Amino acid sequence: MKISIIGAGAMGGAIALGLAESGFDPADITIANPHEDKLRIFQEKGMAVTTDNKEACRGADLVFIAVKPWILPNVISEIKDTLHYNYQAVSVVAAGVSGQDLKGWFDYNGYCPTISLSMPNTAVRCRESMTFVVPVTGNERNPDIDLYRRLGEVKVIEERLLPAATSLASCGIAYALRYIRAATEGGVQLGFRASEAQEIVAQTVKGAAMLLADGAHAEAEIDKVTTPGGLTIRGLNAMEKAGFTAAVINGLIP
Hints:
By secondary structure, this protein is of the alpha/beta class. It has eleven helices and eight strands. It has helices at about 10-20, 40-45, 55, 70-80, 100-105, 145-150, 160-190, 195-210, 220-225, 230-240, 245-250; strands at about 5, 30, 50, 60-65, 90, 115-120, 130-135, 150-155. It has an eight-stranded mixed beta sheet, sandwiched between helices. Helix 7 (about 160-190) packs across helix 8. It is elongated. The model has no long low-confidence stretch (mean pLDDT about 95).
C-alpha cells in the first residue's frame, strides 16, 4: 500500500513517523506541507516529500488529510479533481467536522470516494494511540483502520460518539500529561530531582494502565494498594477533598 499524508503538523507528522517505526516502508509514504522546513525530517527518514498536495495524491491508495478544520474545505477542493474515487480512499483527521460536511465537499457529480473521519491522538508517534474511526462512506474494512492498528488501539464508532471520544482520548492525552506534571512537581517537593520524578511518575502511570489491560476494574486495583490507615488512603482522600474526581469529569464535559 502507498499512502500520502497532507499536513506535516503535530498529527500528520506523528502518523508518518509512527508508521515508519512500525515497519511500514518509508519509501511508500509521501508527505505534503506548504512549508519545506517541516518536511526535512521526513525526507531524512526516506519518505517522499512535496509542497504540492495534488502531486502527493497521485499513486496513493490512501490519503490522510491532517490539516486545521478551517483549511480542510480548500484542501479538498484542491485535490478532488486529482483523486480517483474508484480506488483511492481518504481518511480525514480534523475535529469539529461532520460526515455530512465531508460528503458535500467531496461530492463530484454525485460520487464520493471511500471516506473515514478519524481521531487519533499524538501517541501515534510511539504507536500507543487510542484512535477512533467513523466510516463516512464504506465500512469497517476501510483501509485506514488496519493502518491505525499498527499505531495503537482502534475503535470504530458512530459519529455521534466522536465528541466524547475526542474528550476522552485526544484531549485526554493532555489531561494525563497534566497529572504527570503535577505529580512530578510533588516528587520534587518530596526530594527527587525533576527528571527522576518525571521518570518515576511516567512509569507508574504506564504500569497502572497495564494493570487494566486484561479487563480489571480500576477501583479493584486501587483497593489492592489501599490499606486501612495507610498513606494511600490519606492521599486519595486529600485529592478528593480538593475535588479531584469532579474536576476530571467537569474537564471532560464541555
